[in-house]
Amino acid sequence: MSRILIIAEHDGQVLNISTAKCVSCAKAIGGEIDIAVFGNGIDAVAAEAAALDSVNKVIAVNAEHLETPLAANWAAETRNMASDYSHLLGPSTTFGKDLMPRVAALVGVNQVSDIMAVNGPSSFKRPIYAGNAIVDVETPADATAVATVRTASWKAAAGSGNAAIEQRAADSSPASHTRFVGMEVEGGERPDLQSAQRVVSGGRALGSEENFGIIYSLADKLGAGVGASRAAVDAGYCPNDMQVGQTGKIISPDLYMAFGISGAIQHVTGIKDAGTIVAVNKDPEAPIFEIADIGLAGDLFSIIPEFESLLG
Ligand SMILES: Cc1cc2nc3c(=O)[nH]c(=O)nc-3n(C[C@H](O)[C@H](O)[C@H](O)COP(=O)(O)OP(=O)(O)OC[C@H]3O[C@@H](n4cnc5c(N)ncnc54)[C@H](O)[C@@H]3O)c2cc1C
User: Fold this and answer.
1) 183-201 burial string, b = 16+ CB within 10 Å, else e?
2) What mean pLDDT value characterizes the chain?
3) What pLDDT, in 10s, does the model give residues 252-284?
4) What percent of the chain is predicted at pLDDT more than 90?
5) Distance between CA 152 and CA 132 in Å, rounded?
6) What is the average pLDDT across 169-180?
7) 64 vs 292: CA distance, rounded Å
């Protein structure tokens, strides 16, 4: 039987929804599912993890050097738990993409990236070429499988479970070559792009950092996260952690609104799993309209104020 350990993503206070999505992937693999919660003062997060359906046990490890999710420290702690498990899973968010390759290197295996479906305990589907091809990847059945889970492909597990929480002392030492200096979060109180249910995105058409302000304004009225195309990021209209797409974030909000974005394949690969896609582009032939559920051919600078006035 598979024994699966998921490394929880959280901010010290709240469990990120990506962890509940990893649980759904783990359920598809089948077997006993444990969640490791690392941090310092993480009782509330451990309780949230324990409430996820199908979880057998939560292992809470409190230690000063695990307080912030420094991959150098969390990977060492994960490696020291690895021998008890057949699978080690993390989300394919920025957090998981930072942590899991280190875990794989320490365990001595290749990482499987972006599991989107499970064929069996050692066989998985993952997208390549910006989602244009799907490959089956197999891991050796006798080795630990270390993988990231493509969060856009999985629904979050429900929260009606009641797993045991085991408090465990840290089994790793602080890394001497890496230390936490500080964290700056862009976007203030706006929902996190990778877990937001609504996202409003702007492209090159915005023309300047100042003009990009109308994207923030509409997003705030909708309670939405803010995204951008790579062209908008490269032009300096907004920070690069807002980039959506192949080399940015892969997201699956219920509602995605694209303003002045052409719909290049590298952008579209980041939004394929969105529920409803609304596109506004002044070019009626823009490729974004091929994947949009609702398309408006027109000037975003007049359409956004109209949207805003409808919202009051
Ligand atoms: C290896 C690689 C990786 C990449 N990764 C990414 C990625 O992760 N994410 C990403 O987004 N891109 C990525 N790109 C870049 C991608 O190919 C496109 O260049 C980029 O997405 C274009 O951004 P855009 O749609 O904002 O700009 P453009 O392609 O310039 O499109 C601007 C659009 O705005 C419309 N427009 C202009 N004015 C208005 C107006 N007033 N009102 C309404 N519409 C208007 C135009 O008709 C046009 O369709 C990658 C490219 C490569 C090669």
Assistant:
1) eeeebeebbebbbbebbbb
2) 96
3) 999 999 999 999 999 999 999 999 999 999 999
4) 93
5) 16
6) 95
7) 47
pLDDT at 132 over 90: no
Could you write out the DSSP letters of every residue in 56-89? -EEEEEE-GGGSS--HHHHHHHHHTTGGG-SEEE
* Nearest protein CA to atom 51 of ligand 1, as residue: 266
Domains along the chain with CATH numbers: 3-168 (3.40.50.620), 198-310 (3.40.50.1220)
The answer to whether the beta carbons of residues 74 and 179 sit under 8 Å apart is no
Q: How far apart are CA 107 and CA 111, in angstroms?
A: 10
Measured distance CA(2)–CA(79) in Å, rounded: 17
Q: Identify the residues whose C-beta falls under 6 Å from ligand 1.
A: 203-205, 229-232, 243-248, 260-262, 264, 266-267, 270, 280-283, 286, 299-301
pLDDT for the residue 130: 82
Task: Find out whether 110 and 29 touch, Cβ atoms under 8 Å.
Answer: no
For 59, the token pair is 């292992």
The average pLDDT across 109-133 equals 95
Sheet holding 133-138, edge to edge: 117-120, 123-128, 133-138
The residue whose CB lies within 8 Å of the most ligand 1 atoms, and thus the one to mutate among 193, 194, 204, 278, is: 204
State the DSSP string of 142-154.
TS-EEEEE-GGGS
Q: What pLDDT is recorded for position 187?
A: 65
| pLDDT 10s digits, 18-50 | 999 999 999 999 999 999 999 999 999 999 999
CA of 272 to the centre of ligand 1 (A): 16
Identify any residues that bridge with 57 across adjacent strands, giving them in sequence order: 34, 164
Contacts of 214 (CB under 8 A, 6+ apart): 206, 300, 301, 304, 305
